[in-house]
Amino acid sequence: MSLKMGFRWFGEGNDTISPAQIKQIPGVSNIVWALHHKMPGEVWEKSEIAVVEKQILPSGLNMDVVESVNIHDDIKIGFNRRDEYIENYIKTIKNLSEFGVKVICYNFMPVFDWIRTDLYHKLEDGSTALYYDASQIKDDPKEMAEYFLEHQKKGMSFPGWEPERMARLDELFAEYSSVSKEKLWENLKYFIEAILPACREYDIKMAIHQDDPPWDIFGLPRLLTDKASISKFLKMVDDPHNCLTLCTGSLGASPENNIADIIYEHCDRIAFTHVRNVRRYPDGSFVEVSHRDEDGDTKILNIMKAYHDCGYDGYIRPDHGRHLWDEKCRPGYGVYDRAMGIMYILGVWDMLNKLKDDNF
Ligand code: CS2
Ligand code: MN
């Protein structure tokens, strides 16, 4: 049984590693990519996709998985203009299918993508990692947006924290003020049902990423946070093209979540998975740690066993990694730690395979 192992790559000139170098990590078969210069709502043109194809294909890796094609706020809020942005999304689906893309990862988090209070939190081994200090999360998100913007000024891009959107934060919050959790569910359903015919026609699986952290924040509702909401989502549009990007790190920030249990329940609808480990603290804070099971609380071994028991053969990638050895990299995307994570995940997987072999 094999996994389709991928590695997230931010594009030429926007990452510290090349596809040819990624190919040197054992077991990697695909690049998880995106057009990082595109704003939510814009069509990804074939000519633009072709540029990335040219950069990836010589390495021998494929470009089956895109992360993310972000959703315009008007779709999440439910403004009339959403239909225009949905039309654009459908065009992007069609264009991506012409380059062999099979899975599109996306999220439906209002305003922000993942939230952390410290991008370089020092761990006891001297490395640094993304940290969420619950006591620092106040009602006003401005300070945090500024913190992220400061890093963007140093040339880093954070998908989901686009400076253009952060500049109109007050406006965005005002627009979202009428969006209850229930309304957000409705808007998600509307979006998926509208794009589903295209997903079927072009055989592309839409794989939603859970909310990170998995709870409401800054008064904004968050939908995909636990087993019940994931089940609700999959039932709401019960179609094999309506899938999950199961993110063990996002779900793992909450002690309520038994991730292996979610995998057993919904394995057939997981098109892509992010494997990452976090260590939780009693006050709701958490920090990202190495993939090794005993370093955190996510239960990586139970998770990998669940995937193996289910016969999972979908796409997978290590999600975040710590920053090691004075590495200069985008926060959360240390190359060394993610490569080590891959070796850990595949080591566990290979052994699970071997244990099924009577002659072993
Ligand atoms: C990613 C997310 O870096 C990360 O945590 O897992 O930002 C992810 O790319 C998006 O939420 C998917 O839309
Ligand atoms: Mn993730």
Give a quick account of the main beta sheet: strands, pairing sense, barrel closure.
Answer: 8 strands, parallel, barrel
From the spread of the alpha carbons, the general shape counts as: globular
Q: Which CATH architecture?
A: Alpha-Beta Barrel
Topology as a string of helices (H) and strands (E) = EHEHEHHEEEHHHHEHEHHEEEHEH
Q: Which ligands occur here?
A: D-mannonic acid, manganese (II) ion
Describe this structure in words.
This protein has 360 residues and is of the alpha/beta class. It has a single domain (4-356), classed as TIM Barrel. It contains 13 helices and twelve strands. It has helices at residues 19-22, 46-56, 73-77, 82-97, 142-153, 163-166, 169-176, 181-202, 227-236, 248-252, 259-266, 300-310, 335-355, and strands at residues 4-8, 28-33, 62-67, 103-107, 118-122, 128-132, 205-209, 242-247, 270-275, 277-280, 286-289, 315-318. The strands form two sheets. Strands 1-2-3-4-7-8-9-12 form an eight-stranded parallel barrel. Strands 5-6-11-10 form a four-stranded antiparallel β-sheet. Helix 9 (227-236) links the parallel strand 7 and strand 8 (242-247). Helix 4 runs parallel beside helix 8 and helix 11 (259-266) packs parallel to helix 12. The longest helix is centred in the middle third of the chain and has 22 residues, at 181-202. It is globular, with a radius of gyration of 19 Å. The chain starts with a strand and ends in a 5-residue tail after the last helix. It binds D-mannonic acid and manganese (II) ion. Residues 67-68, 105-107, 113-114, 160, 209, 212, 247, 274, 319-320, 332 line the site of D-mannonic acid.
